[in-house]
Amino acid sequence: MVINDYTSMLSYPEVQDLHKTLQSGGLILFPSDTVWAIGCDATQPGAIRRLNALKNRKPGDPFILLVDSIDMLKKYVRHVHPRIETLLYFHNRPLTVVYEEPENLPSEVLAADGTVAIRVVQDEFCRSFIQALGRPIVATTAHREPGRVPGHFGEIQSDILEGVDWVAKYRQKERHFEGLSVIARLDAQEELEFLRD
């Protein structure tokens, strides 16, 4: 396990180390724009299988993917409805949206119905390393399933800490996180449906 010290969110050497971990199929533990999360490159099936094993997840359980921008989102979803795009620009809380027609993604990150859940991150730290990677990352809460979502770094279990390849020091001392993101999708009538508020 390698622990890197983030003296600056956008420090090139640190982002480079994180980039190498993700690119090589490694697992990372990091503070997302919601809660502490385990992540990996969303385009590497081997890394996703490792993540499933660490969390005791069943293959086919849906993931949330993080992207750095709407431009990146459009590379992995065939169509972003204008209503969703407007919502992404103006929504104040972290917002995960379920999309019907994903593309350029392995089946391991899709839900059983073929959809994919993606969030455009609002946190600059997350945005910096996703941008460096140039691809989406998987972000799943830092606990084994079933289990309680840790409210801060100090509540993360040791087996999770030992099971990843890279742990961020950034925000480790904080005791308040936003909680889980809002999840929404467009229904058949193109009305916004909130699956989690």
Brief descriptors of the model:
disordered N terminus; DHBP synthase; 197 residues; 26% helix; alpha/beta; ten-stranded mixed β-sheet
Describe this structure in words.
This protein has 197 residues and is α/β, with parallel strands linked by helices. The protein has one domain: DHBP synthase (Alpha-Beta Complex). It has a 10-stranded mixed β-sheet, with helices on both faces. The longest helix has 12 residues. 37% of the residues are buried.
Indicate the topology:
Elements: E1 2-4, H1 12-23, E2 28-31, E3 36-41, H2 45-55, E4 64-67, H3 70-73, H4 82-90, E5 95-99, E6 116-120, H5 124-133, E7 137-141, H6 158-163, E8 166-168, E9 182-186, E10 192-196
Parallel strand pairs: 1-8, 2-8, 4-6, 5-9
Antiparallel strand pairs: 2-3, 3-7, 4-7, 5-6, 9-10
Ends distance: 35 Å
* Class based on secondary structure composition and strand pairing: alpha/beta
Which superfamily, in CATH terms, is the homologous superfamily? DHBP synthase
Shape: globular
- Please state the second-level CATH architecture: Alpha-Beta Complex
> What is the mean pLDDT?
87
- Unreliable residue runs: 1-10
Number of spatially distinct domains: 1
Biggest β-sheet description: 10 strands, mixed
Share of residues in helices:
25-40%
Order of helices and strands: EHEEHEHHEEHEHEEE
Number of helices, counting only DSSP H or I runs of 4 residues or more: 6
CATH class: Alpha Beta
CATH topology: DHBP synthase
Strand coverage percent? 15-25%
Q: What would you report as the Rg, rounded to the nearest angstrom?
A: 16 Å
Q: Output the strand order for the largest sheet.
A: 1-8-2-3-7-4-6-5-9-10
Total number of beta strands: 10
